[in-house]
Amino acid sequence: MGAVRMKVAIERFEETGVWFVDGTFQELDAVIWATGFERDAAGLACSVGREGEESKRLRLWRSVFHPTLPGFACCLQAHPHGSHWAVADMQALWIARVFAGR
């Protein structure tokens, strides 16, 4: 079994592996690209009436429902500590119940 190891920055990829900036070459079967994730609502700015820096963060009631746009809800705008799947599941159920009028 292989191991996951951090390496220096990648210089370039080749068909069978990767060259690193320190001049080393590593043959690889797979590359895990762990880039991180940042929530950004800028793409929704025109829909929710926000501009500039304010457009990057949605202000949602309980991190789910928009306060002035009925029918607008988001999953996983909260930053849970632990399982994201459990939070997404519960938020999706809540959204479905609210939209169904329950």
Automatic annotation (TrEMBL):
GO molecular function, one term: NADP binding
Domain of life: Eukaryota
Keywords: FAD, Flavoprotein, NADP, Oxidoreductase
InterPro entries (UniProt xref): FAD/NAD-bd_sf (IPR036188), Flavin_mOase-like (IPR020946)
SUPFAM superfamilies (alphabetical): FAD/NAD(P)-binding domain (SSF51905)
Cofactor entry: FAD
Keyword presence, NADP: yes
The family this protein is said to belong to: Belongs to the FMO family.
Protein name stated in the entry: Uncharacterized protein
Organism: Zooxanthella nutricula
